[in-house]
Amino acid sequence: MESIADLKDHFDREEQSKLAESPPGDDCFDSPSSLSQCRERQRPLLLYGCRPVASRAEILSALPPKNAVDRYISRYFNRLDLVSSSSVHGPTFLKEYEDFWRSPDEASPMWIGLLFSMICLAVIASDPPPDISEHYHQQLQIALYREKLVQCLLMGEYTQGGDYALETFMNYVYVEFRIHDDAQKDIWFLLGLEVNLAKRMGYHRDPKHFPEITPLKAEMRRRVWATVLLGDILISGQMGMPRMVRDGEFDTAEPRNLNDEDLNGEMTSLPLPRPETEHTTALGIIARRRLLIALGTISDLTASLTTCSYADMMRVDGNLEQAYTSIPPPLHMKSMASSVTDSPQVIMARLFLRHMFCKGKIMLHRRFLFAKSTIEREGMYSYSKTACLDAALGMLQIQQTLNEETCPGGQLFMMHWRVGSIMNHHFLTATMVLCSLVHQRTTLSREDEIVSALRTARGIWIRKAEDSVEAKKASQAVSIVLARAGGSRFDATLIADRPSQVRSDSITVSKDVVGEGLVGDHAMFDEQMLLVEAFMSGESDRGKY
């Protein structure tokens, strides 16, 4: 096999055959059975077609009663701070929201689409349904609001731009991203539309170049552009593709550390930013932007077909360290025990930033894990090897924390929906790094630490394997690597750790993943190690799909 793409095709053949036998269609939600499989087969409506809408009245008729919409909007602003802080100015939206209920027919299709996007995301961010019938109802809600959102984008001719066109489109991309447990290449194509729409509307240029833009709109444009950059880095990286926006192609400034209440439509100039010791609406956007600028440089370096020097690698590593150091104090990493008085949103923001930092370290240094130093430069790559190992272990520690704290009763239970395909992709990469180290036996002094982390990760992957193809493959790879390292192929305590999380049928999945059928299966082991080595070789950085 010449590339990771060939390898992925090899592993996916069985799954692809199954999907081909039952093509996706509108009957996905005709019954409550196999909802997760149906959801995975849902294709983006904007790319593959959406039922045409007869009129604005038909769209408005799909809205729930106002008291229900009020609750959804509250949930959107309180649970989806990652999105809401950049897509809308709270006080302005509230005024427009009140005007809408007084005169629904006067609202633009794009504003109505924005409202449907908020409702849809609020449903996605709801607490897990208690039973299958409630889950079925929730999926029907998501499907309905997603359809109305796309119909509004089309009716409002989103490619023409205008008020809320980009914000509504960003929310739509986030909806499509959140309804899938595994990576979907279609989301990357939607990202391309989002980036091009943002550029076409001038978001890549700082508003200071356009005097006609009010200070309020200028600041919101800076927040929106920072979120476009974030999506580019994360989704392009997940697809193994270079980012779409490079350094030097934009000059939009960093947003100021201001609360929404500090801004209004009548002001003629922006107020001074609040100190970064104060947590504001924009603080998370500022922190993420600083880190993603460094991640963008790493992405460019690792995607380049031109070999760069180790000195260049270390310079970029310094940029990443500096960016992480510049994160404002309220978002500095803290233990869960030290965070008991903090909100779930703040804790999740800290974990996400640390997760991005570990991602950057692994991206930059994993190619040097097995590099040989010359006699003259003994230990030349020791820093990279340690940095990559520490980052992989740190990444899996975050996975363990999220696995524990997003359970019912955990500190992050209300944020359970935030653990999506991108974070799982990075956890998978960290898992493959550690699997490769165990396979190569190059870190014997820390092998116990690595094996312990892999055993914990294996339990998590096993529990996720029912809903995620990537999780199933990860659990297989880890099980085989641990078996070759001398560990047990199946440890029942991994299932017994949190019985409330695992349905009875998931135990069957677990046994299938690591059962006796794999004993002595050298072909399976070789295939899984090819996957591990492909991750380590850097082939997974480009053109996986």
Automatic annotation (TrEMBL):
One family name in Pfam for this protein: Fungal_trans
Main location: nucleus
GO terms of molecular function: DNA binding; zinc ion binding
CDD domains noted in UniProt: fungal_TF_MHR (cd12148)
Keyword Protein biosynthesis among record annotations: no
Alphabetical keyword list: Nucleus
Lineage top rank: taxon: Eukaryota
Residue spans of biased composition, Basic and acidic residues class: 1-18
Disordered as annotated region, ranges: 1-34
Official protein name in the record: Fungal-specific transcription factor
The species this protein was found in: Glomerella acutata (Colletotrichum acutatum)
Lineage: Eukaryota, Fungi, Dikarya, Ascomycota, Pezizomycotina
